Amino acid sequence: MIGLLTVTLSSNISARVQKLAKQRDEEIIAIVEQLLDEALPEIVDEQTADDRAESDPADREMAAYIAMHPQLKAEFFGQYVAIYGGKLIDHDTDRRALYMRIVAQYPEEFVWLSKVEEEPIRTFVVRSPRLDRG
Q1: Are residues 58 and 73 in the same domain?
Q2: Are the beta carbons of 41 and 74 closer than 8 angstroms?
Q3: Whole-angstrom distance between the N-terminal and C-terminal Cα of the chain?
Q4: 132: which DSSP letter?
Q5: Domain of residue 33, residue span
Q6: In this structure, are 26 and 71 located in the same domain?
Q7: Are residues 23 and 83 in the same domain?
Q8: Does some domain include residue 71?
Q9: Are 65 and 83 contacting, i.e. CB atoms less than 8 angstroms apart?
């Protein structure tokens, strides 16, 4: 159940919000709600994530691949696998050969193709450059 929330602001923040509301010629509550909406992250519950996975084939197949990864790693480590409809449909050590078979068999469908590695999804680390102000 969603209800009203009472928040006590410091005098400094309160004065700033009042000044902004006056400048924009808007109600204080509208300003506060807009600022909070922009600042707070979107909360995705499990049901929403499940609905999105069901509607997007890429999300659905990726989720299936991640769930199957321990078994795939044990049986097909280093090989390329094809996941369709939540199931392993083909595998090969040659990525191009697997791709050609999948395109021929499923020309209009999304099929997840991935090399089975140590982790299900590879993590890339990009270092931020440091600027020397000296």
Answers
A1: yes
A2: no
A3: 55
A4: P
A5: 11-40
A6: no
A7: no
A8: yes
A9: yes
Distance CA 118, CA 69 (A): 9
3-state secondary structure of 82: strand
* pTM (predicted TM-score): 0.54
Q: What string of pLDDT tens digits covers the 134 residues of the chain?
A: 456 677 787 888 888 888 888 898 888 888 888 888 788 777 765 555 555 545 688 899 999 999 999 999 999 999 999 999 999 999 999 999 999 999 999 999 999 999 999 998 877 766 766 666 76
* Amino acid type, 3: G
Residue 130 included in any domain:
no
Amino acid at 30: A
Q: Are residues 30 and 59 in the same domain?
A: no
* Residues 4-38 as b or e (16 or more Cβ within 10 Å = b): eeeeeeeeeeeeebeeebeeeeeeeeebbeeeeee
